[in-house]
Amino acid sequence: MREKHKTATDESYRDLANLNEKLKRHAAFELELKANDERLNQVNKVTKCTTWPLIVIFVSLHLVYVLVLVFRGFRFASEQHNS
Fold first, then answer.
1. Keywords on this record (predicted)?
2. Which residue has the higher pLDDT, 32 or 80?
3. Rounded Cα–Cα distance for residues 54 and 57 (Å)
4. Residues near 5 by beta carbon (within 8 Å), at least 6 away in sequence
5. Whole-number average pLDDT of the chain
6. In whole angstroms, what is the distance from residue 9 CA to residue 18 CA?
7. Are residues 64 and 58 in contact, defined by beta-carbon separation less than 8 angstroms?
8. Euclidean distance between CA atoms 58 and 79, whole angstroms
9. Among 78, 67, 53, 30, which residue's Cα sits nearest to residue 22?
10. Is 61 exposed, middle or buried (0-12, 13-18, 19+ CB in 10 A)?
11. Where residue 49 falls among pLDDT bands split at 50, 70, 90?
12. Element (H, E) at 51
């Protein structure tokens, strides 16, 4: 909890001592966005696609399946350990 409070109250971003470094990182990020503009547009199109909800459902079902398998593995290991 202390660590979360420390992170939440951190105001080092206001420190102007490393302003040049922050500007460089910001410029690099903008260049990266420009370089990947087409890819970002493709991602935006996919998210607006009508099949997007089907993809979410498929991934959700897959995660449930994996969690069931993991749970069965833990239960099997526990049964083996107890016997």
1. Membrane, Transmembrane, Transmembrane helix
2. 32
3. 5
4. none
5. 79
6. 19
7. no
8. 31
9. 30
10. exposed
11. low
12. none
Whether the Cβ atoms of residue 52 and residue 46 lie closer than 8 Å to each other: yes
Q: Note the pLDDT of residue 78.
A: 76
What pLDDT, on a 0 to 100 scale, did the predictor assign at position 13?
64
Structure tokens at 27: 């410029």
Tokens 């997007």 -> residue = 52
CA–CA separation, 9 vs 3, rounded Å? 10
> What Cα–Cα distance (Å) separates residue 9 from each residue in 2, 4, 14?
10, 9, 12
pTM of full prediction above 0.70: no
Q: What is the pLDDT of residue 76?
A: 76
Position 69 confidence tier, pLDDT thresholds 50, 70, 90 = confident
For the CA atoms of 54, 60, 66, 67, what is the dihedral angle to 10 degrees? -160
